[in-house]
Automatic annotation (TrEMBL):
Enzymatic class: oxidoreductase
Biological source species: Eutreptiella gymnastica
UniProt-listed GO biological process terms: glycerol-3-phosphate metabolic process
UniProt KW Glycoprotein keyword: no
SUPFAM superfamilies xref list: FAD/NAD(P)-binding domain
EC number(s) per entry: 1.1.5.3
Pfam families: DAO
GO molecular function: glycerol-3-phosphate dehydrogenase (quinone) activity
Family label: Belongs to the FAD-dependent glycerol-3-phosphate dehydrogenase family.
Sorted UniProt keywords: FAD, Flavoprotein, Oxidoreductase
Domain FAD dependent oxidoreductase: 2-244
Protein name (database record): glycerol-3-phosphate dehydrogenase
Gene3D superfamilies documented for this protein: FAD/NAD(P)-binding domain (3.50.50.60)
Keyword Flavoprotein: yes
């Protein structure tokens, strides 16, 4: 869609139906990655006092960058497609005393990093009674004897991944792209290739298109392109071997 809306000529080929594979098997979450935020401030040793909660921390900037980028994408997704996205609350139980301030700070930092792109309700703490009311089967005590103290409620986004997939494909078609489902890749074509021998005439081969097969009619179609993108997920290596058989 991005290429088509920028004026490029685009062709999309799908072996089955759109969103019938991996695209429809996601978590349906549009999350900023709060667990990465927690990993950015990992504790070097278990705290012994309230002062140790913030004193014994290790900072990892890489995780913060991931969270920042993910929050930006979350906001873009929710704002651009409000008709198929919604906020979803998630509850993280708290069992140890020092987790209460840590969880609160983590949640508020998560909200702060979203900034103006905070498109979901802010995080908040709830008491033990509320946590058990929402989840009666929640574990009340850990194996170490730590009692449930409360929980942190943090919000992320949820989407309909199948509908989003189709929406993106149809928007690309409206912008001039060609999208064909039930078409499988038969072979790749290469620049400088000898039609008689079927091998490169010399030098490094460059993929310049593909031969696809209409699985409903059996018709073969040759598609020429300046760039061919291998976006086949778990089948990427099998397609790559077509271009690099060695």
């Amino acid at each position: 869609m991005d290429c088509a809306t920028r004026g490029l000529r685009v062709a999309l080929v799908e072996r089955e139906d759109f969103a019938s594979g991996t695209s429809s098997r996601s978590t349906k979450l549009i999350h900023g990655g709060i667990r990465y935020l927690a990993q950015a401030f990992q504790k070097s040793i278990p705290p012994q006092s309230v002062f140790d909660v913030f004193a014994n921390l290790r900072f990892d900037r890489a995780y913060l960058d991931v969270v920042s980028a993910d929050l930006e994408e979350r906001a873009f997704m929710i704002q651009s497609a409000p008709f198929m996205t919604r906020p979803i609350p998630m509850m993280i139980p708290i069992y140890r005393w020092w987790e209460t301030p840590m969880m609160w700070v983590t949640g508020k930092l998560y909200d702060f990093m979203a900034g103006r792109s905070l498109t979901v309700p802010p995080s908040h703490l709830i008491p033990r009674s509320e946590a058990l009311y929402q989840f009666p089967a929640l574990k009340r005590e850990t194996a170490n004897g730590d009692q449930l103290r409360g929980a942190l409620v943090v919000y992320d986004g949820q989407m309909n991944d199948t509908r989003m997939n189709l929406h993106v494909a149809l928007t690309a078609v409206q912008s001039g792209a060609v999208a064909a489902n039930h078409c499988s890749l038969d072979s790749l074509t290469f620049s400088g290739e000898s039609k008689q021998e079927g091998v490169a005439s010399g030098g490094a081969r460059k993929v310049n298109g593909a031969v696809v097969v209409d699985r409903l009619t059996g018709t073969k179609i040759t598609v020429r392109a300046k760039q061919v993108i291998n976006a086949t997920g778990v089948f990427a290596d099998s397609v790559r071997r077509m271009a690099e058989p060695g």
